[in-house]
């Protein structure tokens, strides 16, 4: 009996700056026939008909109508991470292509990073590290102070899975938790973390010592935080963004930080990524920027790989797709 041919799956590349990790590729090769974009472009007519799925590792390969037209048997796109702002869902649906992501797998690590950024910015850890290792440091000034986290007010904008996990962690710091969301959580969920719903985002901004952004990027959340919103915040407040860079008007943020409208910002996301090396945000001492590492742990990346694999296998078998993204 002949061995069954493995389904062909398009990937961007293996290894390098943006490619599928080499150890992940070995796992995938046991289940799929992997075709890189280079291989596909060199033999479009033959390989285009064989490709049945796209394994989209951190927004690569880029999917547009030209690519979809050349893949007549494409059934599913499995995308890593939570955000789907890099995908045109209507376009994919028009070609009968289903989409999955990995929202629940990344939530714990991303919430952890949100807390890490809050602690690092409030206690000025990056500045402190630089002072401690500087060859010019002769003493540690007694008036070099940070802000308290325990007992402070945290405003969470976006109370989905990640936002709720942030609230669970903040509760352990005895923080007062406010949140703004499209839909209010039920009373039992609110009581479990001690969270208070703010129907109006302005009410949250005016009260919070820390404002953490945990929303998906949509037309409604594009530049959700701009000059007006920053001016509503306390001058002692810190803005933390673990969602998407375009949720914040970066020009307005630079101005607010330079003019002490708010105290500081801690950003795991910017626009673009990375920022141009001469961007003013990179020159401000009251800003911490990390390289979009919300889900960047060994365990989570392995789980993402496994979840994406399960989604592709289900999609090709005509079974319900784990974490299918619906229009």
Give your account of this protein's structure.
Helix content is 35%, strand content 15%. It is of the alpha/beta class and 327 residues long. The strands form two sheets. It has a seven-stranded parallel sheet with strand order 8-7-6-9-10-11-12, sandwiched between helices. Helix 9 links the parallel strand 7 (176-180) and strand 8 (195-197). Helix 6 (107-122) packs across helix 8 (161-172). The protein starts with 7 loop residues before the first strand and ends in a 10-residue tail after the last helix.
Please specify the SSE layout and strand pairing.
Elements: E1 8-11, H1 22-29, E2 33-36, H2 37-42, H3 44-47, E3 51-56, H4 65-69, E4 76-79, H5 89-94, E5 98-100, H6 107-122, H7 125-133, E6 153-157, H8 161-172, E7 176-180, H9 187-193, E8 195-197, H10 201-207, E9 210-213, H11 227-232, E10 238-241, H12 250-258, E11 264-267, E12 287-289, H13 298-317
Parallel strand pairs: 1-2, 1-3, 3-4, 4-5, 6-7, 6-9, 7-8, 9-10, 10-11, 11-12
Helix pairs in contact: 6-8
Task: Tell me the radius of gyration.
Answer: 22 Å
Strands side by side in the biggest sheet: 8-7-6-9-10-11-12
What does the largest sheet look like? 7 strands, parallel
Shape: globular
Family: Belongs to the D-isomer specific 2-hydroxyacid dehydrogenase family.
Pfam family, one: 2-Hacid_dh
Domain D-isomer specific 2-hydroxyacid dehydrogenase catalytic: 24-325
Domain D-isomer specific 2-hydroxyacid dehydrogenase NAD-binding: 115-294
């Amino acid at each position: 009996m002949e061995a069954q041919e493995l389904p062909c799956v398009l990937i961007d590349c293996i290894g390098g700056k943006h490619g599928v990790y080499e150890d992940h590729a070995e796992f995938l090769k046991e289940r799929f026939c992997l075709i890189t974009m280079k291989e596909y472009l060199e033999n479009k007519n033959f390989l285009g008909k064989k490709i049945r799925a796209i394994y989209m590792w951190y927004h690569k390969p880029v999917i547009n109508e030209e690519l979809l037209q050349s893949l007549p048997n494409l059934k599913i796109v499995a995308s890593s991470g939570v955000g789907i702002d890099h995908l045109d869902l209507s376009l994919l649906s028009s070609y009968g292509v289903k989409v999955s992501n990995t929202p629940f797998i990344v939530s714990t690590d991303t919430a952890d990073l949100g807390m890490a950024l809050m602690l690092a910015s409030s206690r000025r850890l990056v500045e402190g590290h630089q002072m401690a290792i500087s060859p010019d440091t002769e003493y540690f000034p007694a008036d070099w102070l940070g802000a308290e986290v325990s007992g402070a007010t945290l405003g969470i904008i976006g109370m989905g899975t990640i936002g709720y996990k942030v609230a669970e962690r903040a509760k352990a710091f005895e923080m007062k938790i406010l949140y703004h969301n499209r839909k209010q959580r039920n009373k039992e969920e609110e009581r479990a973390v001690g969270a208070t719903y703010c129907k109006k985002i302005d009410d949250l901004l005016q009260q919070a010592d820390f404002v953490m952004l945990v929303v998906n990027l949509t037309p409604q959340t594009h530049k959700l935080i701009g000059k007006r919103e920053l001016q509503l915040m306390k001058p002692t407040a810190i803005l933390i963004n673990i969602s998407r860079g375009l949720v914040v008007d970066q020009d307005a943020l630079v101005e607010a930080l330079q003019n002490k409208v708010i105290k500081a910002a801690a950003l795991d996301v910017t626009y673009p990524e990375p920022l141009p090396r001469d961007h003013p945000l990179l020159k401000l001492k009251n800003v911490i920027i990390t390289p979009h590492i919300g889900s960047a742990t060994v365990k989570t990346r392995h789980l993402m790989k496994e979840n994406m694999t399960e989604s592709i296998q289900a999609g090709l078998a005509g079974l319900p797709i784990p974490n299918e993204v619906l229009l």
